[in-house]
Structures are given as structure tokens and as C-alpha cells.
């Protein structure tokens, strides 16, 4: 059976990241040292799937979509200034709506460091020269390695991983996927609450349409974070800094976002991040009588005691997450207070159905036994695997790599799932949304060789295609993720690995079936324990007896909220409002019953708008998957 071993394109790209230091960037404003960034990946091997932002549904306030080109050599960066405070009377609105925030809009999950999905921490790929990184108690904490063995140790963390990796399937929150792409014409500002015990220099970098490490696909600007062991809130207007020689302006569609943090040589400073906001500024949140960038301090109920807020946008509460804040002009917050102001949270709905994972599951529906790995019927066979065992609660098929006669090499463990025969095989025109729950021991590494190869792959055969087994491109199994979902209904150019002559889709027409399905958990050349906990192969969500329950919850639900639901054919067309009077919002799961009787067959996207009682404070979210009407 054909198998490309060693993840060659991924490993080659990874080697560049580690071998070339980012720390040669003169982030203080001098010319950037030539060759300081990793070499670009081959653009010919990259295929992006970015989509334009969804057009607004009826009565939506259209955001500013004008193209912004900023190539200033004097960036608007976050700095501490000695400008004398303005002595004019200052005022702040008593209440202000939370400004629209990218992460909240894209995933109903702000970058508030409340869960591990907020930041991929997989050195050196998504976090360079980061030691002991973790998210705990609402904070991301790590040490920067200034003792890395090179003349200039650079570090970075990645709020938005672009996912443009030659040879890998984009999935999850990868920025190359349309729903995860930043519209920089809308989200022009960034704020971050950060603590550091030492920094040499810092910057904010972004990428479009290519690898995060390709300088020809990047833009960037300095960031004057202070490493004195004090919490500060920093604000920025994002614009390209020309001396960095990165051509991509902060405009249009952006696929990746990176925070560069360079430690002093020979030191290992501690860094903590409380939250990051990429937001659309609201003029109504302006603190009048205070000149932007002048010294300003604030305290919050249940938050900062007395803390500096710096940068060009410090005189607008749009930079802050929801809360009640009071502002001051002196470092000890002992002067006349400005405020307080209550920043009212925007709704934060999560659409539970329809979803990216989909609806009915193949094994549950056709085999009457889900692939939950609680016993032998779930797995038909395995190879290059020793110590195979099942765990009933929670379910897991476990084993470790070992050398067997099957292929003659250790780095190819495989797990063949039980599939029905004849018409009980997989009708993949229905079932194509794959979710794997998977963990492993040992470190994350995309290098080939011992303790490397933390990538998986899915293999299949169909009744429509003869020849060798088909295989997906690599599934990067990040150490800090346990669930991996991908819709296998995609073009073979994006889906398939191996020789082009073997590229075939996973989805085959009615009357044909997938007869063989397996998961290869890694390509480590040494023994590595792995645990496959659950596999689901689902359909798109579908109505039951002519009704589909659009289900959501909103932890920020308030009395008076109204929920408006729109649908639109995936193939194109206009949004249709299903419930003109709106539905009640709820912190627990609640549903709207969409009567699909008489609705044309096809797939429909779902958009939900949750509005506060005054309608000016609202959030729009799009479901992760469609509703299919058959």
C-alpha cells in the first residue's frame, strides 16, 4: 500500500524555523537584519481556501470595508510616554458597548486565556523558544528561552495559526479556512494585557496567503512591551512598519497573527498574557479630555488594581473586555477619578446545531455500534502496533509503535476500523465529516526520526476506484488538542497525498461505497504510546420529519435579548430571516424549530444574530456546518 513516509515537506519547513533566528529583527526601529526570518516555503505547494467575508443579512449595519494601505515609517505602537497629562476636564460615558472582537465573532470564544483553544502552544512550530507554556487560571504563562544556544534567541506565540503548511490538511481554527480569516478592514486595532520580567524587543506580525515564515507574505510593526515585572495593558493601531521590509499591509484578508517576544540574551524571563483583543473601535467609547497616548491608568472591579494602559488607543474603552473601569492620570490612581464606565458585554452565542462535526454517525446508524473504542468490534485489525488493548471507560484503543513483518519499519502503526459489507459499507456521499479523539505520550515534534512524526493520516478504498489505498495529507496532531475534525468532502487537490495518479475523492456518488477505512496515528521511528478514544464519521445535519432544531446557548444571555436566525443556500443567494419577531436567548441549550417542509432541496448556511434590547449591541455568528435538506 502506498504511503509517503517522513512528512518531508512539513519537516523541511520546520527545520527552517529552528535553524534561522527571528531575533535579529531590530524591533527598536532600525533596519531589519537581512535573513533574520525563516526562508519561505515553496509557494507553488500552497493552496489556500480563504473565502471572502459573508455579506451582511438584511438590516445589518455594514462595517467599514474601505481598503487601508499604511506604510508609515512612524508606526502607531504601544509606548510609555513622558508627555504631560492634559489638564482639560475628562469624562467617560457611563456605559459603553463592548467593541466587536474578532475571536468572539469567529469562534464565540474570545482570546481570554480561559481554555487551551485560545492559543496553540507547540514549540517550535506555533511557539518559538517558549518553555513550559500552559494556560491556567485564565492566564497563559511561559518562560522565554534566552539561553537557546544561538547568538540571538527569538520567541513568539501565535494567536492565529495560518495553517498553510505544505503537505498538511487545514482544520480547526487554521486561519487559511474562510471562517477563521481576519477582515483587517474591520478589525484595525489590537490590545493585550501582558506581564514580563524581561524583554529585549517585541513586535506584532501578520501573514496573508502563505506560510507564516515567508517574509514576502508578511507584514509587521514594533511593539514596545516593557519587561519590568508589572502588568500593563497595551493598545495598537495595526499598520505596517516599512523598515521591517515586510510588504503586507494590515488590510484585506489576513490568515495569521503572531506576537514576537525576544528575551535578553542569557535570560529566561517569565511572560504572562491575560487576554488579547483584535477589535473594531467604537467612537462612543472615547474618554473625552484625554489626549491619546498620554499617561493613563485604570482600575477594574474584580480586575486590575491600578495599572497603566498605554498606546495610541488608550483613551477609548473599546480596547477593554467587558467590565466596570475607572481611569486616572497618575501612576498610583490617587488623583480625581474619570468614570466609572460599565463596558456592557456583547452576546456570545455558540451554535450547537448545525455544527462542523455534523449529525448522524455512520457506525452508530449502520453498524449499531459506534467506534467508541470500548471493545474489539470497533477495530478490525492493526499493524506495527504492540501492546494493543481496549479501555472501556472512557473508551480507548491503545498501543505503541513496534517493528512487525507487515511493512518492515516501525514508523507506520495503523488501525483499521470495522466497516460493513455490501450496502452496509460507507455511503460517503452522506457520511464524510470525520472527528477523531486522539492522544499520545511523549513530546510534539514534526521532525522525522525518533520522538518525531506527530502527524496522523486517514486511508481509504472505494468501490469506484481500483489500485492502491488512498490517503489524506497529514493531520497535524497538536499536543494540546485532543479532538480533530475535518470535512473529507473536499477537492482531491487539497485532500489527497501520494502520487497524483492516485488522487481520488473520499466522497463517491450514490451506489458506490467506501469499503476500507483506517487511521495511522504517527510516523515516529521509536516506540510511542498512542490512544484512539473515539471516531465519528457523520452526515451533514439534516431535519427530522421536516423539522430542524437550530440549537444554541449564550453564557452572556440577558433579559430582553432577541435571537434572529437567517438561512442561505450554500450555493449562493440571499439570507432569509426565519423568525422576524426573534426568539428568546438563553444561557442553556435552547432551540428554534425550522419547518423545512416545502424548502428546496440543498445545503443551507445558518447565521444567528443575538441583539440586546437596544439593538445596537449585537453579535453575529455563522454555524460551523450546514443543514442539508434532501
Written overview of the protein:
The chain has a ten-stranded mixed β-sheet, with no helix packed on it. It has four domains: 1-39 and 108-280, Sandwich (Jelly Rolls), CATH 2.60.120; 85-99 and 283-346, no CATH class; 362-539, Galactose-binding lectin (Jelly Rolls), CATH 2.60.120.430; 542-629, Immunoglobulins (Immunoglobulin-like). A hairpin with a 2-residue loop joins strand 2 (130-136) and strand 3 (139-144). With 630 residues, the protein is mainly beta. The chain has helices spanning 8-19, 102-107, 362-367, 492-495; strands at 95-97, 130-136, 139-144, 156-160, 182-183, 189-196, 201-207, 218-222, 232-237, 253-254, 256-262, 270-279, 297-300, 307-311, 323-328, 338-344, 350-353, 379-383, 385-391, 396-401, 414-417, 431-440, 455-462, 470-471, 475-476, 483-487, 514-520, 529-539, 547-553, 562-569, 576-577, 583-584, 590-595, 602-611, 618-622, 627-629. It starts with 7 loop residues before the first helix and ends with a strand.
Query: How many structurally independent domains?
Result: 4
Portion of residues in beta strands equals 25-35%
Unreliable parts: 1-9, 11-88
Helix segment count? 4
Per DSSP E runs of 2 or more residues, the count of β-strands stands at 36
Question: What is the CATH C-level name of the largest domain?
Answer: Mainly Beta
Distance between the termini: 37 Å
Helix fraction by DSSP (H/I, runs of at least 4): under 10%
For the sheet with most strands, the description reads: 10 strands, mixed
Amino acid at each position: 500500500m502506498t504511503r509517503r513516509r517522513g512528512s518531508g515537506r512539513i519537516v523541511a519547513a520546520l527545520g527552517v524555523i529552528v535553524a534561522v533566528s527571528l531575533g535579529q529583527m531590530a524591533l527598536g526601529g532600525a533596519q531589519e537584519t537581512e535573513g533574520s526570518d525563516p526562508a519561505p516555503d515553496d509557494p507553488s505547494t500552497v493552496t489556500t481556501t480563504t473565502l471572502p467575508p459573508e455579506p451582511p443579512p438584511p438590516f445589518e449595519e455594514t462595517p467599514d470595508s474601505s481598503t487601508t494601505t499604511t506604510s508609515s515609517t512612524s508606526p502607531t505602537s504601544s509606548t510609555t510616554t513622558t508627555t504631560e497629562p492634559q489638564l482639560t476636564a475628562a469624562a467617560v460615558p457611563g456605559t459603553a458597548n463592548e467593541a466587536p472582537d474578532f475571536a468572539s465573532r469567529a469562534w464565540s470564544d474570545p482570546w481570554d486565556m480561559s481554555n487551551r483553544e485560545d492559543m496553540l502552544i507547540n514549540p517550535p512550530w506555533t511557539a518559538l523558544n517558549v518553555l513550559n507554556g500552559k494556560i491556567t487560571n485564565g492566564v497563559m504563562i511561559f518562560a522565554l528561552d534566552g539561553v537557546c544556544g544561538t547568538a540571538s534567541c527569538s520567541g513568539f506565540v501565535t494567536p492565529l495559526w495560518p495553517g498553510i503548511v505544505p503537505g498538511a490538511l487545514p482544520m480547526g481554527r487554521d486561519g487559511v479556512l474562510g471562517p477563521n480569516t481576519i477582515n483587517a478592514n474591520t478589525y484595525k486595532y489590537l490590545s493585550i494585557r501582558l506581564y514580563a520580567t524581561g524583554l529585549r524587543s517585541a513586535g506584532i506580525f501578520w501573514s496573508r496567503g502563505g506560510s507564516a515564515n515567508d517574509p514576502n507574505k508578511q507584514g509587521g510593526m514594533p511593539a514596545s512591551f516593557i519587561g519590568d515585572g508589572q502588568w500593563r495593558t497595551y493598545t495598537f493601531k495595526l499598520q505596517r512598519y516599512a523598515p521591517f521590509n515586510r510588504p503586507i499591509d494590515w488590510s484585506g484578508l489576513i490568515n495569521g497573527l503572531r506576537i514576537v517576544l525576544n528575551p535578553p540574551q542569557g535570560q529566561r524571563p517569565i511572560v504572562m498574557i491575560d487576554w488579547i483583543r483584535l477589535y473594531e473601535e467604537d467612537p462612543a467609547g472615547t474618554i473625552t479630555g484625554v489626549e491619546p497616548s498620554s499617561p493613563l491608568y485604570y482600575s477594574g472591579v474584580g480586575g486590575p488594581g491600578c495599572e497603566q494602559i498605554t498606546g495610541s488607543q488608550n483613551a477609548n474603552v473599546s480596547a477593554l473586555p467587558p467590565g466596570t473601569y475607572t481611569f486616572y492620570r497618575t501612576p498610583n490612581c490617587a488623583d480625581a477619578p474619570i468614570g466609572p464606565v460599565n463596558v456592557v458585554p456583547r452576546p456570545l452565542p455558540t451554535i450547537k446545531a448545525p455544527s462542523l462535526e455534523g449529525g448522524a454517525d455512520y457506525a452508530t446508524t449502520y453498524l449499531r455500534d459506534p467506534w467508541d473504542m470500548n471493545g474489539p468490534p470497533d477495530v478490525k485489525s492493526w499493524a506495527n502496533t504492540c501492546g494493543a488493548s481496549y479501555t472501556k471507560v472512557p473508551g480507548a484503543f491503545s498501543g505503541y509503535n513496534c517493528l512487525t513483518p507487515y511493512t518492515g519499519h516501525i514508523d507506520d502503526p495503523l488501525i483499521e476500523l470495522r466497516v460493513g459489507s455490501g450496502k452496509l459499507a460507507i455511503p460517503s456521499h452522506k457520511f464524510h465529516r470525520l472527528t477523531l479523539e486522539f492522544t499520545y505520550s511523549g513530546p510534539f515534534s514534526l521532525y522525522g526520526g525518533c520522538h518525531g512524526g506527530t502527524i496522523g493520516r486517514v486511508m481509504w478504498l472505494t468501490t469506484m476506484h481500483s489500485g492502491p489505498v488512498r490517503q489524506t495529507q497529514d493531520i497535524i496532531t497538536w499536543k494540546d488538542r485532543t479532538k480533530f475534525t475535518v470535512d473529507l468532502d473536499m477537492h482531491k487537490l487539497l485532500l489527497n497525498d501520494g502520487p497524483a495518479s492516485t488522487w481520488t475523492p473520499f466522497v463517491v456518488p450514490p451506489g458506490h461505497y467506501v469499503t476500507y477505512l483506517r487511521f495511522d496515528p504517527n510516523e515516529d521511528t521509536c516506540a510511542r504510546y498512542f490512544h484512539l478514544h473515539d471516531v465519528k464519521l457523520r452526515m451533514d445535519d439534516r431535519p427530522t420529519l421536516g423539522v430542524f432544531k437550530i440549537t444554541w446557548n449564550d453564557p452572556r444571555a440577558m433579559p430582553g435579548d432577541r435571537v434572529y436566525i437567517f438561512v442561505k443556500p450554500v450555493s449562493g443567494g440571499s439570507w432569509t430571516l426565519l423568525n422576524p419577531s426573534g426568539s428568546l436567548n438563553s444561557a442553556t441549550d435552547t432551540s428554534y424549530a425550522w419547518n423545512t417542509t416545502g424548502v428546496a432541496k440543498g445545503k443551507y448556511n445558518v447565521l444567528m444574530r443575538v441583539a440586546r434590547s437596544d439593538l445596537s449591541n449585537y453579535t453575529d455568528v455563522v454555524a460551523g456546518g450546514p443543514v442539508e435538506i434532501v
